[in-house]
Design goal:
The chain folds into 2 domains: about 1-130, Thiol Ester Dehydrase, Chain A (Roll); about 135-164. The chain is α+β, with helices and mostly antiparallel strands. The longest helix has 23 residues, at about 135-155. It contains 4 helices and 6 strands. Helices cover about 35% and strands about 35% of the residues. A hairpin with a 2-residue loop joins strand 3 and strand 4 (about 85-95). It has helices at about 20-40, 45-50, 125-130, 135-155; strands at about 1-5, 50-65, 70-85, 85-95, 100-110, 115-120.
């Protein structure tokens, strides 16, 4: 898991005064490329040496808290799943108070630029996946605890607490 710092720019807010929905996708993409480069998998490297690049198959983006102009966030990026020729990247935008503002799950495949088809995930990505095992375990435990608190609140007739 890696983190990328970002500050919301004035040109990125909409008429409601918060980050425009489409800009979330741009920020998440910038963070993925920062993450990939930091892990030794920059686009230039993949194209020049292996003639492959990631191709997006599906994006699931959930907005949880608003982000306002000049607000600083940390974007967490990690590999959640690798299966065959597909993978899932998890990302979160985390506010200064620790609240998760947005969560993205991106399903991808590696696309060979000459053969024009999906190919096996490179070994470098499998190494990153193995290194993220501890973070995935921490996330799973935190998600289970949050779900238990939600269920307990609902059983008592209360609204579940805001997500952290």
């Amino acid at each position: 898991m890696r983190e990328f710092e970002y500050v919301v720019r004035p040109t990125q807010v909409d008429t409601f005064g918060h980050l425009n929905h489409a800009v979330y996708l741009e920020i998440f993409e910038w963070a993925r490329w920062e993450w990939a480069a930091a892990e030794g998998m920059g686009l230039e490297e993949m194209i020049a040496k292996a003639r492959i690049a990631p191709a997006v198959l599906h994006v699931d983006l959930t907005f949880l808290k608003e982000l306002r102009m000049h607000e600083a966030v940390r974007v967490r990026t990690w590999l959640q799943l690798l299966e065959g020729i597909k993978g899932v990247v998890g990302q979160e935008m985390v506010k200064a108070d620790g609240a998760v503002a947005a969560r993205l799950w991106l399903t991808f495949t590696m696309f060979h630029l000459d053969r024009r088809r999906a190919v096996a995930v490179p070994e470098a990505l499998r190494t990153v996946f193995a290194a993220d095992t501890g973070y995935r375990a921490e996330r799973a435990a935190a998600e289970a605890a949050l779900e238990a608190r939600r269920r307990a609140a609902l059983a008592r007739g209360h609204e579940p607490e805001a997500e952290r």
